[in-house]
Structures are given as structure tokens and as C-alpha cells.
């Protein structure tokens, strides 16, 4: 076994020979340094110090006169200048002192040559191996490999050097340590090295191998040259030489054997000696401590470039074989064995020894919840940080990302900046990236596993330090939740730009491998195995696209109990956390980015702000290719159930959530309630612009597919399948279901076809859609030109654009006019869908109409319009709706009450009308005249009386009067028309100025008013107000209508026994004057109608007398 184990790594003992002199010098100079002990004799009674090794031609000097290096003339000057005096009596101390000088010029050539021959003699005399057996007797017995070595061939010392880390005996340890120091001072003294690497040394021009042609200090450069050649080959650099396998093994073995003490790496020692003093002065040598200290300071500004280069070369060797790191190999030895990280027979030994394989194997154990020693985990963290700091330690990245580095990331190699630059290129933020480079980056991120501890990523750590100190200070340092916390604060005031970039660069790669989020992996590994057929942590499948496992998890996260195969509660919480965070950037959703790459470029290339790309894809849903449309649709459907996935929206809406929706937001399971609450409170004072825009956008997306409204989909799914099959757009589904409900209601069917739960949710959807014209695509498309022309600066929300179009109805294009008219028809039948009315009159509805049904809401408000408690804004809105209702089609109560009267008396008007046109009050004017003639049915008469009373107070409620008298009102009655409160003053003005009216159409309308007022005093509000007390005193027993109360007042005016109120008397006299004016100017038809009423009046004699007197005077 021993021989087999040493063959592949080059047995150093092939030519190491340990002379007795070296052994004795070690024992007496290091183990027993006192002068008294130097006089002890060896077994043969000889004083060991008297033994001498000199130049090659020299023999042993007589035992009585001990030979000393300090006494040699060629070295005396150098010794005096460079070495402390207390070391002169010890040849080995002198040797150590002189050979550690870094510059060639410090030691003379003759002294260098003497030192070389001295060491060569020390390491080539075979006859003193038995002394090593004596000094290391107990150690040899403990180390089985060394105990079995054949003596007399120099193998024993090689074995002891190989296992020096396990030597506990102090004397033996000191001896082997000094021996190692001598051997590693010159590659020509390392046994077998010259023979195995001769050809490669010459090919790579690493220096001469002839004795004497190189001084002691440059010999380390030969090994360093070979190490660099090995690195170039691993990185497949252009022109790299393929080093022979046996030389490769020798190079790696030398690196491994020099891993505990940086003095043994002569090139690095001389390159970094000043840096060691600067950065690691207090670091004890041995066990790789100085290496680690220097590694930690590699990118300090004060670090010399030569030392940094030497350290990088050593790190690259560690990346190829973890045993080149003494501390890592020692700390993780038992864990590697425990978790079988070095016994994979299917893997070549070279790959198995790689640092990356060790890290992946042990990280897998940690993530599975296995116990890995703290010491080993500490070492792993150091080397994971090392990999993240310097991209060049990964040969795959150097090889596959060469062009990306040259094009985008040159000069950024320090502190992980090049790696982050490459990650930025990998995100697609700086052009295309080679797939091999992308894979190399993904592999490196898995090996370094920065998701487990953000501190591994130095660039991220430094960029985000201030954010962590403020936003995440409550989380333990190094906790994986720090990264999650940073994501939660992305795009907030606490985030800084540099941290934002570094964070997104890292998260892009973490998002492509669900295992790299340690919390998600811990909570979901059993679910992923059960539902998504995952493999082990460090096993990957080329067939599995990036992000596929997480997509599988979130598809199961929102399954119902009936659907089965659901995630565990803990896993679902983590999946929701990830979804919330990844919604911030479309690039954090690998499946979405992969399927929508073309569409993102086609439709959304200018959308660069946070969250804009997904919104853009949702806006263009119908235009997307099928693969992209499916994934965007699925994600939107998911958002409809849990809108908290939209983290940016949730942040923007925080004030309104806290004020109005906190109970929904606090629920562990969101079923669309939160979004519904936000929609209902869109126009509260806490609502800000960002939240309003976000909520409206989601509403606009929802209309594209009824599945995007979770509550609507859940409540109405069966109804849609039964009543509205093959309809997908939400607005069409709403219209289909609403029409069904309306028809069933009108036909008084016993059992509604639409279920109760669906009807309830349908009402919510209808009300929401009425708030913004854009939520009704057909109406919006029909009216877009009109909106631009008539309502350019009006906000869409609160139905303001719809209201603007209503107010400008006469100026609308035919297409838009028809759509608005149909909308008003629906609103008049169902006032709850009149968003502006319900919003403006919300408090008045609570005050006056709490017991009224929804369909009677407007009627209730009209009845209370003139109450002193009525809000002025609501009163104004009611007036607008009354104006609208002057078209009989938009007055359902009138239409129902006058169902028989309209065709009986006004058929000629109906015959002139075309479909979808408004008659603008013509039918109502017709019915008013028939009311004056007392020819209407009782129900119709009641409705017309109400209309007459309302329009008598406000001229705007009489569309025919407005059409024909607009100019006359402006000319004759401008002050009355400008009054905020209309109480019939405009009508009174027109009546008074009847003779001044020039337009015939207007004269006719005023005459009609006079005729109507004669029929019912309620139609004459000015007169009715003036005579209210007299009616109460003299006409209380007379019912209103058919001119009865008017006749009663006229009789009272004629009766001298009755004293009327002065104002009433004056107004009655005015009316007689007006009738006289009417008789003078009215057409024959109108005058005869008026005369007929006068002749049938009980006060006809008085009236006729007054009219006759008036006419005579004129």
C-alpha cells in the first residue's frame, strides 16, 4: 500500500540522504542549544560538532578541530554584515540566515557556492540514516507508513517529511523541520525533481539546471516558473505547453509539502518577505498561517505586485488540488472521509482533488443538515471568499470568459469586481455572453455559495455595508437572511446604487439554481424531491432548464386542497418570499426571461425602470408569442391570488394598506382580498400616485382574461363554463353574465341562472369597471379620438373621463355617442354602476337612502335633493343625472309609467327616431302638453308632474328649452342663469321677457311653460312659493293638478273679502299679465289652447277682464 500510494505523487525519498552531521547539528543546535550540552559525545565517543562538511573536494577535518561556516573567509564578510553574532557558532543557524537573503547582491558568489556544496553534502551522504531512526524512534512507530520503509535507501526521511504534520515528538519535529528547510531551498536538492522535470524546465525556459550556474536565491524561480506553466495549461491559454504528467505530480507534490510553512515556497518567500513584515508581522509561521494572512491582504493597495502575483499562483494551485492548502486539508480531513468526498471511483483523481469538488461535496453535507466541523467550515468559507474575490482562480472562467473580460471587464480584477462585471454581462446588461462563460459563472457561484453567507462576496459586502448596518442590523452577521433583507429593501430609500447593482448581479445567478438560496433549500428539499424529482445538492442535470425547480414549486404553492399535491406550509412561505423578491426584476425569473427574450426586445426595450418589463409584457399580452404569453399569464394569475408578490406595488401602497387594508395584508393566505380592497380605496387621501398607477395597471391587465381576477374566477368559474363558454376576456365575461342576470330579473324568472356567489362578485367587478373608461375596452376604443379632443387633461380615475364625455355628449362622434348612450341606459336602470354618482353622493346615500334598493338609489336622492342637509356637490350631481333623464329612454320609471301613453300620443316623434339616437326631450315635451290637456293616464301623469316640478326649478332639466332658448337666456337672463342655485328664476325671466324673445322656437317653449303652469301651480315655483300660505289658508281642501288650485287662488284674488299675501297678489297679477302677453304673441293654436283653459276656469270673467284691459292699454 505504501509503495502504491507514493508512486503517483513522486516519492521524494528516492534520493534524500540524511548525514549524521545534519542530525547532530539539529540535535545540538536546536534541541539542546546550551554550550554545556554541546560537549556531549555520540555513541562512538566522538564530538559531533567536530565533524565537518566543506567544499566537495574536502574530507572530514580532524575531530579535535570542529569546522565552522563562520570561519570560512569567503563568507566571513557576509556573515558579519547579515547574521547576528549569537548564530555564528551554529552552522545550521548560519545556513538559515544566509540562505534567506532575498537579493543576489547581498551574498558574494564564492559564499553562495560554498553554501551550495555544504547543503549538497548534507543531503547526499547515505550512511547516517540510522541516527534518524534513533531521534524519531517513537514517531516512526506511530506512523505505520514510515515504519514499513526499507532502511538504507533514504526513504525514511522522505516519509517523515511527508508526514511532518503528524509528528508530535519535539526533537524529531525540529529535525525534520530543519531538513525540510534545507531541501526546499533549491529545487536541485528535491529528490527526483530534476530528472522528472528536466525537459519541461528547458522547454519553458525556466532556467539552468547545472550546479553552480544559478545561485541559491534564484532556484525558487525555477519551481515558480513551472507552477505558472501548469496554471497556463489548466487555463488553456494560447501557446501553453503541456507539462508531462510525472512533472505535474512533482510540482503539485512540492506545493503540497511546502503548504505549512511559507519559507518552503522560496519564490513566494522572497517575493513576499516585505509584505509579510507589513501585514503579517505577528502571525506565527507554520500550519499555513502566513499564507492565509497574506491571502487576506492580497488586494490591499500596499501589497507589492510581485507578492500578489506569487500568491495568486499558489491560490491557483490550491484550486487544482486542495491539499496544497495545509490548513484546509488538515481541518477537513475527517469530514472528507466521513462524507466520502474522496472515494468516487467514477471520477478521475485530478478532478476529485480539486478545491471546487471538495467545496461542493462538503457544502452538500451542510445543506442536508449534516454536521461538518466548525474548523472545516471556517476554512471552507475562507476559500469560498477567495474564489469570489479573484476570478482568475477559476480556470474555466479564464478560459471561457476571455473575450467578455477583454471587452467589458479589463482592469477590474481586484476584490471580486471582474467577477461581478462578468455577472452583469451574464444578466444581459452589457451585451451577449458566451454560453460556456455563463455556465462557468453559474458553476463558480455554486462552488462559492455566497447565498449562504453574503460576506463571501467581498464586492457585495463592501457595496452593501451601509445598507446592512441600517436596514438589516437586526439580523445576525453572516445569516443567509441578510441577502433576503437586502432584496426586501431593493429600490427603497435605504438602498444605495452600488449595492443595488451588486445584489441584482448575484441574485441573477442564485435565481437560476434554487439550491443557492439556503433557506429555500432547507425548507423545500423534501417537497422538491416529492413533487419536482430533484437530485442532491451538488448534482445538476443539463436537461433541467434554469429555474425549472422553482417554477415547479410555485406551481404547487397555490394549489387548493381539492387539487392535492400541495407544498408544506414552511416551503410555501419561502416560495412566496422568493416570488415577492423576484417580482422586482424580470431577469430574476429564469423561465420568464428565457421564454420572453424575443418579446422583451420587441416590445419592452425602453422599459428600464424596476418592474416595468413585466408590466410591459402584461400590457402586450395579446401580442406575445405563445410560450411567453403562457408564462406571463400564469404569473399574472398567481399575482391575482397573492398581489403581495408585487413587492414594489406593496411598498407604494403601504399608507393605504395600513389605513384601509391592513387586515387583508396581515392574512397568511391572500385570496385576492387585498387587491380588491386597494381598488375600493383607490381614491382615498392615503392613496399616492405610484400606488394608484400600479393598482390601475393591474386592473387593466385583469380585463384581458377573467382568470386574472382570482375572486371572480373562483366565484364564477362554473357559471362561465355553463353560460359563457369560449369567452376569455374578462370584460366580455362580465357583459355575458350581467346580461344573463338582467334578463332573468326583467323576466321575473323563479331561479336565476347565475349563482348567488357569482352575482355577488359580478357586482364588485361591474362597479370596479365603471371607475375607469379604460376598463371597458370597447367604450375606450370607440371614444379615444373624442377623449383627446374634448377631455385631454382629465384623469381617467374616478370615472372622470366618462363624466367629461357625458357632459360633452352633443359634441361626440356618432360611434362614441352611441356607446356613452348605452352606458347611461345601464346606469339609469342600475344607478350603483354610476361610479361618479355613488362616489360624490356616498355620504348622502348613507344619510337618506340606506333602506333603498340599488335600482332606486337615484330616485331616493332626487326626492331628497332640496333638503337642507343635502351636500351641494351631491345636489349638483343629481341635477346632472336629472338632465340626462330628460330623454325618455334614460328614464326607466317614466318609460314604465307611460308605456301606453307614449305610443298613443307621441308616435310621430318615435317614427322619426333612428336606432341609438337620443330624442333630447321631445317625447317628454309631448307628454307635458298632454298633461296640460289632462289626457294622460294617472301613472304617467304622476311622473310628468314630477318632471314638470323639477324642470320648473331648473331650466337645465328641460332639454327643449335649452336647445331653443340658449341664446335668449344668454341675452335676456345672464345673471339668473349664472346663479349657483337654480330656483326657477331663469324660467321667470323668460316669462317676463316673453315679448322681447326673438326666436320663434324659444317663444313656443315659453308659451308651453305658461300653459303647463296654468294646469298646475306646482309647475310655477315662483308663484307657488309666493302663495304657499294663501293656498294653505284658502285652498287647503282642493287637491293639486288640473288647474284646481290655480282657479282657487284666482277666485280668492277676485273676492274682495279675501286678503291675500301681498307677494302672492302681485305674482297672480303678473301671471294675468303674462297670459295677456301670450294671447298677443302666441300662434293661433297656442292661444286657443290657452283660451280654452281660461274659459273653463271658474275665474274666467276676471281673467278675461284683466286680459282685455291689458290689450286695450297696449
From TrEMBL:
Keywords noted in UniProt: Glycoprotein, Membrane, Repeat, Sialic acid, Signal, Transmembrane, Transmembrane helix
Signal peptide: 1-36
Annotated Cys-rich GLG repeat ranges: 106-168, 242-302, 371-430, 432-494, 566-625, 686-745, 753-813, 815-869, 935-998
Annotated compartments: Golgi outpost; Membrane
Gene Ontology terms, MF aspect: fibroblast growth factor binding
Membrane topology: Single-pass type I membrane protein
Listed GO CC annotations: Golgi membrane
A Pfam family recorded for this sequence: Cys_rich_FGFR
Protein name according to UniProt: Golgi apparatus protein 1
Lineage, uppermost ranks: Eukaryota, Metazoa, Chordata, Craniata, Vertebrata
Amino acid at each position: 500500500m505504501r509503495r502504491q500510494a507514493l508512486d503517483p505523487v513522486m516519492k521524494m525519498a528516492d534520493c534524500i540522504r540524511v548525514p549524521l552531521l545534519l542530525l547532530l547539528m539539529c540535535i545540538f543546535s536546536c534541541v539542546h542549544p546550551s554550550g554545556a550540552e554541546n560537549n556531549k559525545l555520540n555513541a562512538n565517543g566522538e564530538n559531533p560538532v567536530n565533524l565537518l562538511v566543506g567544499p566537495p573536494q574536502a574530507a572530514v577535518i580532524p575531530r579535535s578541530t570542529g569546522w565552522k561556516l563562520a570561519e570560512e573567509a569567503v563568507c566571513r564578510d557576509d556573515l558579519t554584515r547579515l547574521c547576528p553574532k549569537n548564530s555564528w557558532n551554529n552552522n545550521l543557524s548560519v545556513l538559515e540566515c544566509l540562505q534567506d537573503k532575498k537579493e543576489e547582491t547581498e551574498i558574494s558568489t564564492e559564499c553562495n557556492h560554498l553554501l551550495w556544496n555544504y547543503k549538497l553534502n548534507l543531503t547526499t551522504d547515505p550512511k547516517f540514516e540510522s541516527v534518524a531512526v534513533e531521534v524519531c524512534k517513537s514517531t516512526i512507530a506511530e506512523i505505520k507508513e514510515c515504519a514499513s520503509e526499507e532502511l538504507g535507501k533514504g526513504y525514511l526521511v522522505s516519509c517523515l517529511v511527508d508526514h511532518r504534520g503528524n509528528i508530535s515528538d519535539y526533537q524529531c519535529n525540529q529535525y525534520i523541520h530543519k531538513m525540510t528547510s534545507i531541501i526546499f531551498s533549491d529545487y536541485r536538492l528535491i529528490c527526483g525533481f530534476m530528472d522528472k522535470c528536466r525537459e519541461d524546465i528547458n522547454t519553458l525556459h525556466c532556467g539552468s539546471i547545472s550546479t553552480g550556474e544559478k545561485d541559491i536565491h534564484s532556484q525558487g524561480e525555477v519551481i515558480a516558473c513551472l507552477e505558472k506553466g501548469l496554471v497556463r495549461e489548466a487555463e488553456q491559454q494560447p501557446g501553453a505547453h503541456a507539462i508531462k504528467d510525472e512533472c505535474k505530480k512533482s510540482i503539485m507534490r512540492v506545493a503540497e509539502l511546502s503548504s505549512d510553512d511559507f519559507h518552503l515556497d522560496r519564490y513566494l518567500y522572497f517575493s513576499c518577505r516585505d509584505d509579510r513584515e507589513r501585514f503579517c508581522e505577528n502571525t506565527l509561521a507554520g500550519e499555513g498561517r502566513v499564507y492565509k494572512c497574506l491571502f487576506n491582504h492580497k488586494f490591499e493597495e500596499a501589497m507589492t505586485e510581485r507578492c500578489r502575483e506569487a500568491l495568486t499562483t499558489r491560490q491557483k494551485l490550491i484550486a487544482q488540488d486542495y491539499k496544497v492548502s495545509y490548513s484546509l486539508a488538515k481541518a477537513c480531513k475527517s469530514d472528507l472521509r466521513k462524507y466520502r468526498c474522496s472515494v468516487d471511483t467514477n471520477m478521475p483523481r485530478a478532478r476529485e482533488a480539486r478545491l471546487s469538488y471538495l467545496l461542493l461535496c462538503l457544502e452538500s453535507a451542510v445543506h442536508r443538515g449534516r454536521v461538518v466541523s466548525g474548523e472545516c467550515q471556517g476554512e471552507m468559507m475562507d476559500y469560498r471568499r477567495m474564489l469570489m474575490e479573484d476570478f482568475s482562480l477559476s480556470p474555466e472562467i479564464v478560459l471561457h470568459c476571455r473575450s467578455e473580460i477583454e471587452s467589458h471587464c479589463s482592469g477590474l480584477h481586484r476584490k471580486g469586481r471582474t467577477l461581478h462585471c462578468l455577472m452583469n454581462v451574464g444578466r444581459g446588461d452589457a451585451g451577449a455572453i458566451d454560453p460556456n462563460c455563463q455556465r462557468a459563472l453559474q458553476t463558480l457561484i455554486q462552488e462559492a455559495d455566497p447565498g449562504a453567507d453574503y460576506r463571501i462576496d467581498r464586492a457585495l459586502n463592501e457595496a452593501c455595508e451601509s445598507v446592512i448596518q441600517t436596514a438589516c442590523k437586526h439580523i445576525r452577521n453572516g445569516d443567509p437572511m441578510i441577502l433576503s433583507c437586502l432584496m426586501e429593501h431593493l429600490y427603497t430609500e435605504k438602498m444605495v446604487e452600488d449595492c443595488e447593482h451588486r445584489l441584482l448581479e448575484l441574485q441573477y445567478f442564485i435565481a437560476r439554481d434554487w439550491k443557492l438560496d439556503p433557506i429555500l433549500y432547507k425548507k423545500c428539499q423534501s417537497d422538491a424531491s416529492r413533487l419536482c424529482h430533484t437530485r442532491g445538492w451538488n448534482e445538476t442535470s443539463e436537461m433541467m432548464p434554469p429555474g425549472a425547480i422553482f417554477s415547479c414549486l410555485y406551481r404547487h404553492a397555490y394549489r387548493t386542497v381539492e387539487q392535492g399535491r400541495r407544498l408544506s406550509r414552511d416551503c410555501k412561505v419561502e416560495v412566496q418570499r422568493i416570488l415577492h423578491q423576484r417580482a422586482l426584476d424580470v431577469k430574476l425569473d429564469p423561465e420568464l426571461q428565457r421564454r420572453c427574450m424575443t418579446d422583451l426586445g420587441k416590445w419592452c426595450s425602453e422599459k428600464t425602470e424596476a418592474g416595468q418589463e413585466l408590466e410591459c409584457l402584461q400590457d402586450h399580452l395579446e401580442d406575445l408569442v405563445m410560450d411567453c404569453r403562457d408564462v406571463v399569464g400564469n404569473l399574472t394569475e398567481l399575482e391575482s391570488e397573492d398581489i403581495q408578490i408585487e413587492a414594489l406595488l406593496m411598498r407604494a401602497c403601504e399608507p393605504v394598506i395600513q389605513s384601509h387594508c391592513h387586515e387583508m395584508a396581515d392574512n397568511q393566505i391572500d385570496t385576492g382580498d387585498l387587491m380588491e380592497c386597494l381598488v375600493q380605496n383607490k381614491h382615498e387621501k392615503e392613496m399616492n400616485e405610484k400606488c394608484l398607477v400600479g393598482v390601475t395597471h393591474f386592473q387593466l391587465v385583469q380585463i384581458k382574461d377573467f382568470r386574472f381576477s382570482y375572486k371572480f374566477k373562483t366565484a364564477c368559474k362554473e357559471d362561465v363554463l355553463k353560460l359563457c363558454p369560449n369567452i376569455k376576456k374578462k370584460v366580455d365575461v362580465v357583459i355575458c353574465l350581467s346580461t344573463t342576470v338582467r334578463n332573468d330579473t326583467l323576466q321575473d324568472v323563479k331561479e336565476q341562472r347565475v349563482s348567488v356567489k357569482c352575482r355577488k362578485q359580478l357586482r364588485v367587478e361591474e362597479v370596479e369597471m365603471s371607475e375607469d373608461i379604460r376598463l371597458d375596452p370597447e367604450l375606450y376604443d370607440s371614444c379615444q379620438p373624442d377623449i383627446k379632443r374634448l377631455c385631454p387633461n382629465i384623469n381617467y380615475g374616478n370615472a372622470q373621463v366618462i363624466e367629461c364625455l357625458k357632459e360633452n355628449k352633443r359634441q361626440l362622434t356618432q360611434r362614441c355617442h352611441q356607446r356613452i348612450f348605452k352606458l347611461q341606459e345601464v346606469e339609469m336602470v342600475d344607478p350603483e354602476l354610476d361610479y361618479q354618482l355613488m362616489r360624490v353622493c356616498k355620504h348622502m346615500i348613507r344619510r337618506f337612502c340606506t333602506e333603498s334598493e340599488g335600482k332606486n338609489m337615484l330616485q331616493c336622492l332626487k326626492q331628497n335633493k332640496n333638503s337642507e342637509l343635502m351636500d351641494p356637490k351631491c345636489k349638483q350631481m343629481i341635477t346632472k343625472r336629472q338632465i340626462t333623464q330628460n330623454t325618455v329612454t334614460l328614464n326607466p320609471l317614466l318609460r314604465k309609467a307611460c308605456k301606453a301613453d307614449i305610443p298613443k300620443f307621441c308616435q310621430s316623434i318615435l317614427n322619426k327616431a333612428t336606432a341609438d339616437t337620443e330624442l333630447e326631450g321631445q317625447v317628454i315635451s309631448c307628454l307635458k302638453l298632454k298633461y296640460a290637456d289632462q289626457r294622460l293616464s294617472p301613472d304617467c301623469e304622476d311622473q310628468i308632474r314630477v318632471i314638470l316640478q323639477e324642470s320648473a326649478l331648473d331650466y337645465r332639466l328641460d332639454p327643449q328649452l335649452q336647445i331653443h332658448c340658449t341664446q335668449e337666456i344668454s341675452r335676456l337672463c345672464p345673471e339668473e342663469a349664472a346663479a349657483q342655485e337654480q330656483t326657477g328664476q331663469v324660467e321667470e325671466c323668460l316669462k317676463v321677457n316673453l315679448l322681447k324673445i326673438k326666436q320663434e322656437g324659444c317663444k313656443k317653449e315659453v308659451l308651453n311653460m305658461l300653459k303647463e303652469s296654468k294646469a298646475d301651480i306646482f309647475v310655477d315655483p315662483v308663484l307657488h312659493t309666493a302663495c304657499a300660505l294663501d293656498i294653505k289658508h284658502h285652498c287647503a281642501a282642493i287637491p293639486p293638478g288640473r288647474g284646481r288650485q290655480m282657479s282657487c287662488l284666482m277666485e280668492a284674488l277676485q273676492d274682495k273679502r279675501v286678503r291675500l299675501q301681498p307677494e302672492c297678489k302681485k305674482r297672480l297679477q303678473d301671471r294675468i299679465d303674462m297670459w295677456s302677453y301670450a294671447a298677443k304673441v302666441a300662434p293661433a293654436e297656442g292661444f286657443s289652447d290657452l283660451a280654452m283653459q281660461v274659459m273653463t276656469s271658474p275665474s274666467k270673467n276676471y281673467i278675461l277682464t284683466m286680459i282685455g284691459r291689458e290689450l286695450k292699454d297696449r
